[in-house]
Each structure stands twice: as structure tokens, then as C-alpha cells.
Structure prediction request, 76 residues.
Amino acid sequence: MVFKNLLREVLSLPVDDRMELFTRLSESLQSEPMAPPVSQDLSVELNRRYTESLEKPELGYSIEEVEAMLNARRKQ
Prediction:
């Protein structure tokens, strides 16, 4: 409910004040880490895959190979 009241107040501000608020909020977000939350299970799996990619690079695909596969699919 607090958010709705705050939003109502902000929307009632003159445009210049809303722009100033928007600018300041945007600047404050730029200094915050924006990484999405990752579960412990997903973190473990990503670390496993990363380690495997370093140990066995031949199992992966180059960016050129990925682009070629995507282009081939798009043409079908």
C-alpha cells in the first residue's frame, strides 16, 4: 500500500520534478549489482559446466559454429 501511495504522489509531481526523480533513481541503480538471483543448485551446475569447458574445450562450439547452426535453422 505504501508503494501505491508513493506512486500516486510521484505521478502528481510536475514533469520536470518527475524527470529529476527518474534521473536520480536511474543513477542510483547503475551502482547496484544487477545480477539475477541464482539458486545454489544452478550455481553448482554452472560452475561444473565452466570447469568442464576449461578442461575439455573440444566439447564446445566456437561462436562461428553457433552462428552457422542458427543461420541454418533460420533458413529451414
Observations:
- The mean pLDDT is 91.
- DSSP finds four helices and no strands in the chain.
- The CA atoms of residues 52 and 59 lie 9 Å apart.
